[in-house]
Amino acid sequence: MLYFGIKRSTFTIGPLRNPFLVLGTLAAQLLHLWSMHNPFMEKILGVSPVSPRKYGECLLYRP
Known about the structure:
The protein has 63 residues and is mainly α. The protein has a domain at 18-60. 56% of the residues lie in helices and 0% in strands. The protein has helices spanning 19-37, 39-45, 52-60. The mean pLDDT is 83.
């Protein structure tokens, strides 16, 4: 088992208190937004920009 100086289990830390999780999630969202608004990436991924209202609706939607 690898040990990197971790004092506690990842599962005992709240998700909002885990800086790697928070920063990773923010970085992923920024990368997705950048990819949708970059013309080169739009063509490669076959995506189009989403309006801020629709993006907010997607974030607030709970099935």
